[in-house]
Amino acid sequence: MKYYVLSRGDQTSDELMERFHQLAAKNGMQRDDLSPDIVVSIGGDGTLLQAFHHFLDHLDHIAFVGIHTGHLGFYADWKPNELETLVELMSQSERASENKRVEYPLIEVEIHSGGQAKTYYALNECTIRGARSTLVAQLCINGGLFEMFRGDGICISTPSGSTAYNKSLGGAIVHPALEAIQIAEMASINNRVFRTLGSSILLPKHHHCEIVLMNDQPMFITVDHLPIEVNDLKSIRLRVAQQKVRFARYRPFPFWDRVKEAFIGSKHDGSPQ
């Protein structure tokens, strides 16, 4: 099995990375920084997002594994004291690993500016904001005008990303088995003159949305952790991507257990105190 490790860069994560290399060598695993089978992220969710974008062109044959070295990461299954168990399972599961991979949907983000179009992919979300003033834009669904948006911005998330910024905006948590994107508003303006739906919207795989700018101003876009400032933005087209991201699962960790662990915790079981 060929592997690659990305560390967050702090002392704990770097020491864990060196220990991983040692254990992997003892177990007959091969380090490959260019075309690995498994990418191991050591740090938090931000580190895994970096790993995802680094290997974006290799998603068809790569799976990701997360080890968290701080607060529990939503994408991280493993703790530092479980490192030896993880490496052993990885080395023993080279052939069977295909049956232990789960796939999560991605967002395809097509940005139109300056007469050109550029495509990005998001694991968590894409956000759009006015850099200097209120965002004024048409929100179109499947080519038809749905609403005229005025407010701070718009967040479009994947199902796995629904637990991130989307959740703080009041959006729903969506299971990754549902191939969909979610549109959530950031502080929309709603009065007798301006009106939006005021709630998040789920679009299935065969639908798309387009955000068409109505005012001429610099726009600030994020694709996961990547900031993009566009001075001549015309529109953004978003839909569920054809490709998916794969995660290697060497032990069961159901999605709703992951959500509970991240946001509720095992101590809150509903029993009387």
Mean pLDDT: 92
How many beta-strand segments? 15
Distance between the termini: 48 Å
* Radius of gyration based on Cα positions: 20 Å
Proportion of residues in helical segments: 10-25%
Low-confidence stretches: none
- C-alpha geometry: elongated
| SS field, number of helical segments | 5
Give the amount of beta strand, in percent: 35-45%
Structural class from helices and strands? alpha+beta
Main β-sheet, in a few words? 11 strands, antiparallel
Helix/strand order, N-terminal first: EHEEHEHEEEEEHEEEEEEH
Structure, explained:
The protein is an alpha+beta fold. Helices cover 18% and strands 41% of the residues. The protein has five helices and 15 strands. The radius of gyration is 20 Å and the shape is elongated. The relative contact order is 0.16.
Topology readout:
Blueprint: E1 2-7, H1 11-26, E2 30-31, E3 38-43, H2 45-54, E4 63-68, H3 83-92, E5 101-113, E6 116-122, E7 125-130, E8 135-141, E9 144-157, H4 165-168, E10 180-188, E11 201-204, E12 208-213, E13 219-223, E14 226-230, E15 233-248, H5 255-263
Parallel strand pairs: 1-2, 1-3, 3-4
Antiparallel strand pairs: 5-6, 5-15, 7-9, 7-13, 8-9, 8-12, 9-10, 10-11, 12-15, 13-14
Helix pairs in contact: 1-3
